[in-house]
Design goal:
By secondary structure, the chain is α/β, with parallel strands linked by helices. It folds into 3 domains: about 30-195, P-loop containing nucleotide triphosphate hydrolases (Rossmann fold, 3-Layer(aba) Sandwich), CATH 3.40.50; about 200-290, Helicase, Ruva Protein, domain 3, CATH 1.10.8; about 290-349, Homeodomain-like (Arc Repressor Mutant, subunit A). The protein is about 45% helix and about 10% strand. The chain has helices at about 10-20, 25, 30-45, 60-70, 90-95, 115-120, 135-145, 170-175, 185-190, 205-220, 230-235, 245-255, 310-320, 325-335, 340-345, and strands at about 50-55, 80-85, 125, 150, 160, 165-170, 190-195, 225, 265, 280, 290. A 5-stranded parallel sheet has the order 2-3-6-1-7. It has a two-stranded antiparallel sheet with strand order 4-5. Strands 8-9 form a two-stranded parallel ribbon. A hairpin with an 8-residue loop joins β4 (about 150) and β5. α10 packs across α12, α13 crosses α14 and α14 (about 325-335) crosses α15 (about 340-345). The chain starts with 7 loop residues before the first helix and ends with a helix. The model is unreliable at about 1-15 and about 275-305 (pLDDT under 50).
Length: about 350
């Protein structure tokens, strides 16, 4: 559904606020689960309670962390992000804690200030903390306990005042049980946990689409960009394995494919990847594996223009044939509820 007209001024106000830096208020787009996460995070702002953000890849964990920082008393201080999974293990110690000159081969003569020290007076955001090596977990725990950091090769501890926000796609309790994450560090970083819902479970996809369309129009110098009713229905039922990151990418690519005299995205403008027979969906380990889902449509025959609704019904018919008419099995394969599948089957009769 399109965002209600009465909500447009509020949405545009939120976008103006986000242009200067996202806030928790600007993230509110009507989804109940997201709103609960926002409300809980807002309550601990300025109370020196660590925030742990959980959710699948692409749901907007760093954006949420930035919004939390910008909504806190530390908004004028630095926001310092570090992706623990993106830095080689032999470099993460110097990146996080810094080093003194000559601490190791290749070190700069003047040394370097680490992320912890850079975040003094502001917020340190440790993304994918569940992938931090155990040895670094021990050092981080000491920093959090003592509120000071000693650079690699240094002898003097430097006091630091930071707000800590961490994020992970993993279930840290399981990592603790498997010996992959320190239990004492888990309780140190897990002051308040909020879980961001995957896009396929959110009720505000239409509002997000409208917001992204307005932003894309502004970035591309167009007066406005819209989408057809058919594409909107498809967006609201597609499972979005890449979550908001994928939605944003699809809208950017689709907008780029518009001709100069076009301002409405139709099915012909959508990236081909959306119609692959086996899209990638997240696994419990944060990777990806191919699996059929609702909204995954077979490619059309060359030269034959078919609507998204027709493609969707063809995909459902194919799955129903494969499971020999078992509605429960088909619903599981398609990633939808039985009631949803019954409604779609009703359109085929």
């Amino acid at each position: 559904m399109r965002a209600q007209a009465g909500a447009a001024p509020a949405a545009r106000a939120a976008e103006r606020s986000e242009a200067a830096g996202p806030t928790l208020e600007s993230l509110a787009t009507g989804d109940e689960r997201l709103q609960r996460a926002i409300d809980r995070a807002r309550r601990i702002g300025g109370k020196d309670i660590p925030l742990l953000i959980q959710g699948e890849s692409g749901v907007g964990k760093e954006l949420f962390a930035r919004a939390f920082h910008n909504s806190s008393a530390r908004a004028d201080g630095p926001f310092v992000p570090l992706n623990c999974a993106a830095i080689p293990e032999h470099l993460i110690e110097s990146e996080l804690f810094g080093y003194v000159g000559g601490a190791f081969t290749g070190a700069r003569r003047e040394g370097a200030v680490g992320k912890v020290q850079q975040a003094h007076g502001g917020t340190l955001f440790l993304d994918e903390i569940g992938d931090m090596p155990l040895a670094m977990q021990t050092r981080l725990l000491r920093v959090l306990q003592e509120r000071s950091v000693t650079p690699v090769g240094g002898m003097k501890a430097i006091p630091v005042d930071i707000s800590l926000v961490c994020a992970t796609h993993r279930v840290l309790r399981d990592a603790v049980a498997n010996g992959e994450f320190r239990e004492d560090l888990y309780y140190r970083v897990n002051g308040l946990t909020v879980t961001l819902p995957p896009l396929r479970e959110r009720s505000d996809v239409g509002t997000l689409v409208d917001r992204l369309l307005r932003a894309e129009a502004q970035d591309s110098g167009r007066e406005a960009i819209s989408i057809s009713a058919e594409v909107r229905r498809f967006f609201e039922t597609y499972p979005w394995p890449g979550n908001i990151r994928q939605l944003h990418s699809v809208i950017r690519v689709s907008a780029a494919l518009l001709e100069d005299d076009e301002d409405e995205i139709e099915s012909v403008h959508l990236p081909e990847e959306l119609f692959g027979p086996e899209p990638f969906v997240p696994t419990q380990h944060g990777g990806a594996s191919p699996a059929p889902s609702e909204g995954v449509l077979p490619p059309s025959e060359p030269g034959v223009a078919r609507s998204l609704d027709e493609l969707e019904l063809e995909a459902i018919a194919k799955v129903m044939q494969e499971v020999k008419g078992n509605v429960s099995a088909a619903a599981r394969r398609l990633g939808v509820s039985r009631n949803t599948l019954y409604r779609k089957l009703g359109r085929m009769s």
